[in-house]
What we know:
This protein has 393 residues and is α/β, with parallel strands linked by helices. It has 8 helices and 9 strands.
Amino acid sequence: MITLYGQTFMLDDPRVIAVLVGTAVALLMLVLLILAVRAAGRSARLTEPLIHSVTAMTQRVQALSDGQQQLAGGLTHVSDAQAAAQAHMIRLMETRLAQVSTAMTENLQGSARRTAQSLGDLQQRLAAIDKAQDNIVKLSGDVLSLQDILSNKQTRGAFGEIQLHDIVLKALPSDAYTMQATLSNGRRADCLIHLPNPPGPIVIDSKFPLEAYEALRRAESPEALARAAQQFRLSVRTHIRAIADRYVIEGETADGAMMFLPSEAVYAELHANFPDVVREGFAARVWIVSPTTAMATLHTMRAILKDARMREQAGAIRRELAALYGDIDRLVTRVGNLDRHFGQAAKDIEEIKISADKAGKRARRLDNFDFEELAPDLIAPVVTDEGPVKIPR
């Protein structure tokens, strides 16, 4: 039993039970509602980070999508750039290959030309070698001929004379020497140089002691060498005495003569190993010369001849100088006269110019009837029937 507001209700009353049940249900629903609200609040508070996470994830997904799009664009750009680079590389390689091909073609052509030229040069050299070989064969024959010539005493003498003539011809003028000149004693000299006095004409005679020299070269033992040296010394001494006796004539030739050895080897052997024979030649006033020393000696003689001829012409030169001095003196006098004439002509021209100026002035005055301006001393008297009348000068 329940008392409420002065009323008593029985618990077993169906209305009370219904009210109680309804109230209990209402309270339960209220509690459930309160619990639901609290749960919703907690759920909202719990889902808020989730919403933020989902939002952030969405933004990240969007950013990832944008990045994928940019990546796709970059990949497209890279692909295009790679394709362009590949195309450029292909074109560059094609150009380079074309250049290399052209260069190789040119090099091959140049190599072919050079090879052909080298073969041509080689052929020319082979031809030159063949020609040189022919010349060597010919020279060998000439050497054999020269040996044949030198083996004969007469032909050997002619060889020395020819060589001497060639040297003299190159060193002296043609009127300065005589080949095969005959002296007053009847001896014939190979060459006579016309030197002035002193020293006078000097003889050059060619001698060639080849046999004695060859024996000296062929000697293999000391005894054979001594015999060959004695033979060589005797041969040269014989030539020295013969030249001194035959070609040194007092009053006609110089007081000495020259012995020409046409071989430098013989000349070197003589001066190196036989100085006593050379001194004997000096004592006999026979000077031994080789082709080289003969050329130097002849050039000295050429200078002597030139000096002598200049002395011979000294009188004529002095006469020509005197005549030249006279011509110069007359030229100076005539130049002075011409200068005076020019001075007088200049003075006359100046006076003519002054007179012309005066005449021009007078003409202008006459044209303007300015007679009163004429000076009295410029009026010249003229005699007429009425008497003297002055007119302008």
